[in-house]
Amino acid sequence: MPKQTTAFDLAAITLDAQSGRALYQQVHDGLRDAVLSGRLAGGARLPSTRELCAELNLSRNTVVAAFEQLIAEGYLESRTGDGTYVSRSLPDDMLHVRHGVGKHRSQQIALPAKLSKSAQTIQRAGRWLNEGPPRAFRPDVLALDEFPIALWSRLVARRWRNATVSQLDYGDPAGYGPLREAIAGYLGAARGVRCSAEQVMIVSGSQQGIDLAARVLLNAGDPVWVEDPGYRGAKAALSASGAQLVPVPVDEDGLCVDAGESASPKARMAYVTPSHQYPTGVTMSLPRRLALLDWAKRADAWIVEDDYDSEYRYAGRPLPALQGLDVAGRVIYVGTFSKVLFPALRLGYAVLPDALVDAFVRMQTLVNRQMPALDQAIVADFIVEGHFARHIRRMRALYAGRQDALVRAVQRELGGVLDIQSAEAGLHVVGWLPPGMDDARVAQAALKRGIEAPPLSRYAMTALPRGGLMLGFAGLNERQIRDGVRQLRGAFE
Prior knowledge:
Strand order of the largest sheet: 3-10-9-8-7-4-5-6
CATH superfamily of the largest domain: Type I PLP-dependent aspartate aminotransferase-like (Major domain)
Low-confidence stretches: 93-108
CATH topology of the largest domain: Aspartate Aminotransferase, domain 2
Number of strands: 12
Largest sheet: 8 strands, mixed
Number of domains: 3
Helix content: 25-40%
Radius of gyration: 28 Å
Number of helices: 16
């Protein structure tokens, strides 16, 4: 007597040879959807692979591959000498989910979200990282097509050919020794940072350096000065630690230290971007730097100096870091390779006062253990062999030309509407709007035309005296810059 199979119409499985998806995957998805929707009940016997091949006009290898994947995933089970059945071990609620549950997360069963106060704070802060493919004029996008991939590949291959067993094991949570030495040497020569290799700790970008500083040094309710407008990622990390953010205005000389002292003289920490303020682009003057260091000493407070893109300075040499002026050991200096190499590398560094090194390393051991050892070794080779300095010089010249192209295009197309001047440093410039014009409305109009020009108000905690748009230029060639400015002009029209 022939064995009975399910009455489910297997020919209803939709196959599209032009979709770009493998046929076996389309068969797999069709059968899985049938199981999840209940059209194929638990215990139902499926046709043999030969029968299904004839039904769908497919090769047997295609159908066998789909069955094997479904069996491995637990949707089907094979009984020797008896055929293939829908598994009965799937949870009952999974068998009766509405069709297409895998396509729309909004259709999934909602569970009550009992988030921590820290997670709730981050939720309220909203997204601060850009998503989706980059477009003009998204800030902080790099000319990644100019990165020396062939050279980097040779360094990677050499490191892996000569890799040792110890490099595959856990390493020093503070980071790979030769890389810490290379960074200390580079920062001393290029940025005026005073440190030894023992004070350098490798982190996964400046964002983690800020997060570690908050974890180690702040208690819930501690007041922290933040630049206003300022970097949203830092605000989110500090808020998540339970800190009370104290917005301090920024003018043409940088953070207004007097305003910070008036608002919160006993703040526990100040977060600053003195070399190239984010997002306005101003540089903190020497009197302000000295005033900030004096306040930190008197208040027994800490300063987190985020030096995120100081390598790209187009007017003279990069300014010495605030850390180099610190004689009281109050500055935590953080930097990143994301802007000078490539973001996917996810490596940065923190230069710590001697008194904080042990506490930071212990915290790093808990939250992240260590950064990838071989990636650190490759970066060390890139620096020590001179490739790093050459790459920065080449990219600095490229970005200077692109900034000039952007400024000229804006002055030509939007003169009288958008006030723009060349910035001395960085990867973006600010276009200032006429007084009273809503920068958020202009940015929204630009977005409808495919132009991403974030408003300064997005980065502010209090009302700004004048609105503006951030215009990134580094990842765009001159033609893209000209086309983007024409599109931006349409937003004003």
